Amino acid sequence: MTSIAVIGTGYWGKNHVRTYSELADEGVIDNVKICDLDEKRARELGEAFNIEYLTDYKELISDPKVDAVSIVTPSATHFQLAKEFMEAGKDVLVEKPMTMDSAQAKKLVEISEDTGQILMVGHIFRHHPAVKELKHRIDLGEFGKIQHISSNRLSFGAPRKDMGVIYALGIHEVDMFCYLMDREYPYSIFTAASQCLQTDIEETAMITMDFGSTRAYAFESWLIAAYGKQRDLVVVGSEKTAKIDYLKPQELQIFDIRVAEQDFNGNTTFNVENEGSYTIPIPYAEPLKEELRHFVKCINDRTKPISDGTIGLHAVVMAEAALESATTGKSVEFTRS
Ligand SMILES: NC(=O)c1ccc[n+]([C@@H]2O[C@H](COP(=O)([O-])OP(=O)(O)OC[C@H]3O[C@@H](n4cnc5c(N)ncnc54)[C@H](O)[C@@H]3O)[C@@H](O)[C@H]2O)c1
Predict the structure, then answer these.
(1) What is the pLDDT of residue 262?
(2) Is cis: bond before 74, omega within 30 of 0?
(3) Which of 5, 12, 202, 328 has the fewest CB atoms within 10 Å, counting from its CB?
């Protein structure tokens, strides 16, 4: 059995704490501890869930009873914490973005390989039930040739001060698009971004990824109130189109619609064949719970996570490229393999 500590119990870390507590209640793990520099925050959460809390993560490093940690602190601190915990023999789940630069992400992958510790990254949408179902159907060829992918991740709120929408939100899309296309990287990334409130933090970005005959578009913003909280994914194939509302993990919408091409004596005509739309129901599972359950399984079985350090590294490389493109106004090319 496994004992896990959550480092960082702010906005997102609270969800890790709640979910591990549920896994402890279900007998999947033995014990949960929490650590936050903010003593009040750690105490309140510790008391609410009746779990041990502390403020100095070094105590967890030297605690032989702690097998693994979830690192849910600000992204700039991920590298140092993940490094120290792996070197101390603990397995690590680090939130996305894994690090703020690719050299550090690469180093963490090397440390994981050298120490044999599990390194998983919180690319939560790889654990989303509707995404898994969609990927399965794409791989079966149900959608034909993928022609277009797009995602909107729009909301309205106070901007972060430590990173813009490319690292905070777009990191999900660059990973998702490569996952769906079965590719490590696209051929190129081009990004247009805007900063209205802070000079160095973009609140809106359109990331375009070129996969050859398929283009993928990610529209990210926390400046747009008009749609509420919108988080969706659309995949257009030559045979069918799919839509996922990320906020509804139990639904995959299918549009059985295609454009058929006909040739009449050398003249090409296009006809729309529309056989209607339907929703595939998927058994409900909370993506974060799936992710943490998978982490525990990898710890116990010593297996590679489906969102491992290399996946985290690729996402950081792409986020870095997207930001570079937004700054220079030019595409960033990737080696074609
Ligand atoms: N996977 C997702 O969908 C998702 C969603 C939101 C945030 N995140 C990621 O989670 C991480 C945390 O984001 P957040 O919005 O919760 O931040 P936050 O600022 O709300 O919380 C961070 C917490 O970490 C604590 N902390 C900082 N350094 C610490 C240290 N050395 N030891 C112990 N505690 C420390 C802070 O006191 C704070 O309570 C970020 O990397 C973010 O990108 C992921």
Answers:
(1) 87
(2) no
(3) 328
Domains of the chain: 3-123 (3.40.50.720), 126-287+317-333 (3.30.360.10)
3-state secondary structure (DSSP) of residue 118: coil
pLDDT at 337: 67
99 lines ligand 1 (CB under 6 A): no
- Which atom number of ligand 1 is nearest to the Cα of residue 14? 16
* Rg of the chain over all Cα atoms, to the nearest angstrom: 21
- Atom 41 of ligand 1, nearest CA residue: 75
What ligand 1 atom has the least distance to the C-alpha of 15? 16
Query: Is the CB–ligand 1 distance for residue 164 below 6 Å?
Result: no
Supply the DSSP string of 248-276, one letter for each residue.
Answer: -TTEEEEEEEEEEEEEETTEEEEEEEEEE
Question: 35: which 2 tokens?
Answer: 């650590």
Residue closest to 187 by CA, chosen among 208, 164, 171 = 208
In the reported structure, the alpha carbon of residue 239 is separated from the centroid of ligand 1 by a whole-number distance in angstroms of: 42
Work out whether strand 68-71 and strand 3-7 pair parallel, antiparallel, or are unpaired: parallel
Interval between CA 163 and ligand 1 midpoint (Å): 12
Mean pLDDT of the chain: 96
Distance (Å, rounded) from C-alpha 307 to C-alpha 122?
7
Rounded to two decimals, what is the model's pTM?
0.96
